[in-house]
Design brief:
The complex is a heterodimer of chains A (345) and B (267). Chain A has 10 helices and 17 strands. Chain A has helices at residues 41-49, 91-101, 106-119, 135-148, 165-182, 193-199, 217-222, 227-232, 292-298, 340-344; strands spanning 3-12, 15-25, 30-34, 56-61, 64-65, 76-79, 153-157, 185-190, 202-207, 210-215, 237-239, 242-244, 249-252, 260-270, 273-280, 285-291, 305-310. In chain A, helix 3 packs across helix 4. Chain B has 267 residues and is an all-alpha fold. Chain B has 2 domains: 1-32; 41-266, MetI-like (MetI-like fold, Orthogonal Bundle). Chain B is built from 14 helices and no strands. Chain B has helices at 2-34, 40-47, 49-82, 88-95, 97-100, 103-114, 121-127, 135-145, 148-161, 164-171, 176-205, 208-214, 224-233, 237-266. The longest helix of chain B is centred in the N-terminal third of the chain and has 34 residues, at 49-82. The chains are: A alpha+beta (345), B mainly alpha (267). The A-B interface holds A 49-51, 70-78, 80, 82, 84-88, 97-98, 101-102, 142, 145-146, 149 and B 164-165, 167-175, 178, 182-183, 186-187.
């Protein structure tokens, strides 16, 4: 069941939450809506679910225009950031809710609920109340509840946002695997680019109510359409009019025509990765990502004058947020996919 | 440590003393006075035809006013919290009016509306409906004075639970009616229950407004509080005390019933 949104607009008072947004989500894919807060990603997700009505544009699920369909008829599974657990119901009753509404008979409900609770590893906790569960358990219960009714699409609104770092990582891996098994078309909203790249096959980067770019993680990292995408997906340095990734900066001791003079300001060791911060002659600050071995070879000290040779530099003409369609990914002739991408992300 | 312990005990004694002197002592005295000379006299007063009629009328007021104000209160709270409208602050203020206005004034206003020179009197007389000095007027007065309780108790609970659970229910296929019965109402039930208890207590004890519109006719339009006053004025103290104790017991029973239900559920 593919999802497409065509020219969606939504305004809350003076705030333009969505501004002519179009996206295409292929059947069976796992897609992340990525963007800073206020970028419109949650509004877009809620509009797909039917929890918000659009001022303009339409939503299609499996080529059917569902824009006028009320939320309870859209057959979407929705998972909320703060779980939205039914507090007066046990775990079992929570998961069974959608099935009871659909008037399934009791033995079928019980079988289905226990099957799902096994899937989310909560089978022993069926009789507990949400208040007796941890955050991670509550979110898995919410996921089982959403999946119980066999939705056409699964929508997750910052599903791991309220969880601590360790649980977050576990659930991420787990969601990825779950999707590999179930193949239900899934969209999830996040502001964390690492999370988006880790979980999703396709990313849609949003900013100020518009889609900036969509594509695979590699596409966005190597061929960002504009300054916003480049700086939001991965780390970036600004050099004059151009942008360069910190791992794409060579540090050399002898100048040539492509180098720029810089002074070492600070060396931060982060395990194998070393972050070296520089001040350029014009006073601007940049940093380079080196390995421990590279650092040892160069023998850098604080205050030392060295020379930076930036690798692939990108420049974007015009306003960074002018790209509204986000449908295509412009190919950068000098950029090529390399093996460092995933390590650096 | 000893300083805080002393002040803690000081506060406890002060609080308990306040409650004892102002609440428990007068109420306890009524119980004591009622049964001072045996149970026969107060029992006689309550079981007299007028007494039984007063009890029946009081229970009738509760049976009509409480369900009305519960349904109205929940609906009104839902509108105030869940549907933004420019007039909401005004509605919210108007609902508090029965708290702000003296019951006697409420009774008089009903008198002006339905009385012999009242606005609605001609139409009602034509239809053969008698409001004043009869049950309809007393119901109106009871509904009026006890109207805000369920709204006031339900609004904060509705605000507290938020809308996410309701939205989750709708994504799972529940329509508005199903969402209300299965999600919203169970979530706000203790707020509503507390409002119902307060409404019941208010209707049971209402004196001023009912007194004005009912004319307090013995055996006809006399509720228990009016009966208490009549017995007291007729120097039938055992009767007055007996009816008072009955009233107090009715109110305590509602409160106890709610607490028992709640305890049963928490266990």
């Amino acid at each position: 069941m593919g999802i497409s949104v065509e020219g969606a607009s939504k305004r809350f008072g003076d705030f333009q939450a969505l501004n002519d947004v179009s996206i295409e989500v292929p059947n069976g894919s796992l897609t992340a809506l990525l963007g800073p807060s206020g970028s419109g990603k949650s509004t877009l997700l809620r509009a797909i679910a039917g929890l918000e009505t659009l001022d303009g544009g339409r939503v299609l699920i499996d080529d059917e225009d569902v824009s006028k369909k009320p939320v309870q008829k859209r057959e979407v599974g929705f998972v909320f950031q703060h779980y939205a657990a039914f507090k007066h119901m046990t775990v079992f009753e929570n998961v069974a809710f959608g099935l009871k509404i659909r008037k399934w008979d009791k033995t079928k409900i019980s079988a289905r609920v226990h099957e799902l609770l096994r899937l989310v590893q909560l089978d022993g906790l069926a009789g507990r109340y949400p208040s007796q569960l941890s955050g991670g358990q509550r979110q898995r219960m919410a996921l089982a509840r959403a999946l119980a009714v066999e939705p056409q699409v699964l929508l997750l609104d910052e599903p791991f946002g309220a969880l601590d770092a360790k649980v977050r990582k576990d659930l991420r891996t787990w969601l990825r695997r779950l999707h590999d098994e179930m193949h239900v078309t899934t969209i999830f909203v996040t502001h964390d680019q690492e999370e988006a790249m880790d979980v999703a096959g396709q990313l849609v980067v949003m900013n100020e109510g518009r889609v900036e770019q969509s594509g695979s993680a590699d596409d966005l990292y190597d061929h960002p359409a504009n300054e916003f995408v480049m700086s939001f997906v991965g780390e970036v340095n600004r050099l004059g009019d151009g942008f360069v990734r910190p791992h794409d900066m060579d540090v050399v001791l002898d100048p040539d025509e492509r180098t720029e003079e810089a002074m070492v300001q600070r060396i931060v060791a982060l395990g194998f990765e070393i972050r070296v911060e520089f001040v350029l002659a014009d006073g601007s600050e940049v940093w380079a990502q080196l390995t421990r071995t590279e650092l040892q070879k160069l023998e850098l000290r604080q205050g030392q004058i060295v020379y930076l040779r930036p690798g692939t530099t990108k420049s974007f003409s015009g306003d960074s947020s002018s790209n509204g369609d986000g449908a295509s990914t412009p190919r950068d002739p000098q950029g090529g996919g390399d093996a460092e991408v995933s390590a650096a992300a | 440590m000893s300083g805080t312990a002393t002040s803690r005990w000081g506060l406890r004694v002060l609080g308990l003393g306040y409650v004892l002197l102002l609440l428990l002592l007068p109420l306890g005295l009524i119980f004591f006075k009622t049964f001072e000379h045996g149970i026969a006299a107060p029992l006689d007063a309550i079981t007299s035809p007028d007494g039984l009629n007063a009890l029946k009328l009081t229970l009738l007021m509760v049976a009509i006013a409480v369900p009305l104000n519960t349904v109205f209160g929940i609906g009104c709270a839902l509108l105030l919290v869940r549907h933004k409208w420019w007039a909401n602050p005004f509605i919210d203020a108007i609902i508090n009016l029965p708290f702000a206005i003296s019951p006697v004034v409420i009774g008089l206003s009903l008198f002006l509306l339905y009385g012999t020179t009242g606005w609605l009197e001609p139409a009602l007389a034509e239809a053969g409906i008698k409001v004043l000095f009869s049950v309809p007027g007393m119901v109106l007065a009871s509904v009026f004075v006890s109207l805000p309780f369920v709204v006031r108790e339900t609004v904060p609970v509705l605000q507290e639970i938020g809308t996410e659970q309701e939205q989750a229910a709708s994504t799972l296929g529940a329509n508005a009616w199903q969402t209300f019965w299965r999600i919203t109402l169970p979530a706000i039930r203790w707020g509503v229950a507390y409002g119902v208890v307060l409404t019941t207590a208010r209707v049971l004890g209402e004196f001023g407004a009912v007194s004005v519109v009912s004319g307090s006719i013995s055996g006809q339009t006399q509720t228990l509080p009016l009966f208490v006053e009549k017995q007291y004025q007729n120097f039938n103290l055992p009767g007055a005390f007996g009816a008072s104790v009955l009233l107090a017991l009715l109110a305590l029973t509602t409160l106890l019933a709610m607490n028992l239900l709640k305890r049963k559920e928490d266990a």
